[in-house]
Amino acid sequence: MFATNTFCVTAILSLGTTLLDKQIITDVNAVVIMDAVVYFSQVAVYDFVSVPSYGKAIVAARNIFNIIKRKPPINNQSTDGDKIPNCTGHVDFKDVYFVYPTRRDSIILKKFNFTIKSGQKVALVGSSGSGKSTMIQLIERFYDPDFGQIFIDSKDIRSLDLQWYRSQISIVSQEPALFDTSIRENIAYGDNSRQDIPLEEIIEAAKNANIHDFIQQLPDGYETSCGAKGLRLSGGQKQRIAIARALLRNPKILLLDEATSALDSESEKIVQEALERAQENRTSITIAHRLSTVQNCDVIYVMHNGMIVEYGTHADLLARSGYYYRLIQGKLK
Ligand SMILES: Nc1ncnc2c1ncn2[C@@H]1O[C@H](COP(=O)(O)OP(=O)(O)O)[C@@H](O)[C@H]1O
Ligand SMILES: [Mg+2]
């Protein structure tokens, strides 16, 4: 590129000298032409150097516009559809098959049948990758089943007003997402359909999540900042704030996906107490890595390769000496 630039300058110099000699142009014109050629050849060189970046920029812009234009199959702003008056939180999966849109060749849920009666405490256990979190995502309607149906109180969830439906559900997962705002605002985020939630309601949720006494001891109380990603709090404190947030909307269905898995045994005990209180008077589904935390559930469902292979109480399943027994022994991979 720079050789081309030098070549242009050299060529114009020799042509200019000849034209000057023959008095075809004046010396002033020669200088003006020379300046113009040097300037434009430099611009052309820089443009050529940037050509590969133009290609990349066009590809990147096309990807961004495709994402902006993409219409997700599930419109999460939708308020079309039915609401269930006095929803009780009875959940039914009927012959559900599911594959992720990005991995069509691998069936994640196969003829998945599952029932939770209203107010029941149900646990879902199984080896890693068996499809437990996927099942929770289907309840939240982040995806729809490829075949089969999911019902809440005998209504197919696809027929429900999505905004209303999601307001009936809360989830606490392994890593809570706290924002760099006050503890009060972080808990209030649990019900973003309402502005200015009274402090008494936030305190009530915090008490039920076993975190009120700790918050009260802080110099700024509920106005204390959590720090970026909740950095100023321990794992157990963050998780109890996440539980308070989940309780604020008084959900009919509470989903707990490995909520205590990232905690040490001391914090796990306190968080577990908070979770047990949170599960009262509502339907709950607990996914737990440590099987000791689900022994008191009403029904334990055991998943293996996307199917329910056993269910019953802890004592029933132990007596059966099957999948659950082998999970407890750590022999099921
Ligand atoms: N977003 C996704 N896209 C494609 N495959 C996924 C996605 N999420 C999970 N999977 C796959 O689905 C299977 C079940 O995953 P998951 O439901 O997270 O299992 P579990 O919670 O029981 O450990 C795994 O094989 C996993 O790799
Ligand atoms: Mg999981």
Automatic annotation (TrEMBL):
<keyword id="KW-0547">Nucleotide-binding</keyword>
<dbReference type="GO" id="GO:0005743">
    <property type="term" value="C:mitochondrial inner membrane"/>
</dbReference>
<keyword id="KW-1133">Transmembrane helix</keyword>
<feature type="domain" description="ABC transporter">
    <location>
        <begin position="91"/>
        <end position="330"/>
    </location>
</feature>
<dbReference type="InterPro" id="IPR003439">
    <property type="entry name" value="ABC_transporter-like_ATP-bd"/>
</dbReference>
<dbReference type="Pfam" id="PF00005">
    <property type="entry name" value="ABC_tran"/>
</dbReference>
<dbReference type="InterPro" id="IPR039421">
    <property type="entry name" value="Type_1_exporter"/>
</dbReference>
<dbReference type="InterPro" id="IPR017871">
    <property type="entry name" value="ABC_transporter-like_CS"/>
</dbReference>
<keyword id="KW-0677">Repeat</keyword>
<keyword id="KW-0472">Membrane</keyword>
<dbReference type="InterPro" id="IPR036640">
    <property type="entry name" value="ABC1_TM_sf"/>
</dbReference>
<dbReference type="GO" id="GO:0090374">
    <property type="term" value="P:oligopeptide export from mitochondrion"/>
</dbReference>
<dbReference type="GO" id="GO:0005524">
    <property type="term" value="F:ATP binding"/>
</dbReference>
<dbReference type="InterPro" id="IPR003593">
    <property type="entry name" value="AAA+_ATPase"/>
</dbReference>
<protein>
    <recommendedName>
        <fullName>ABC transporter domain-containing protein</fullName>
    </recommendedName>
</protein>
<dbReference type="InterPro" id="IPR027417">
    <property type="entry name" value="P-loop_NTPase"/>
</dbReference>
<keyword id="KW-0067">ATP-binding</keyword>
<dbReference type="GO" id="GO:0016887">
    <property type="term" value="F:ATP hydrolysis activity"/>
</dbReference>
<dbReference type="GO" id="GO:0015421">
    <property type="term" value="F:ABC-type oligopeptide transporter activity"/>
</dbReference>
<keyword id="KW-0813">Transport</keyword>
<comment type="similarity">
    <text>Belongs to the ABC transporter superfamily. ABCB family. Multidrug resistance exporter (TC 3.A.1.201) subfamily.</text>
</comment>
<keyword id="KW-0812">Transmembrane</keyword>
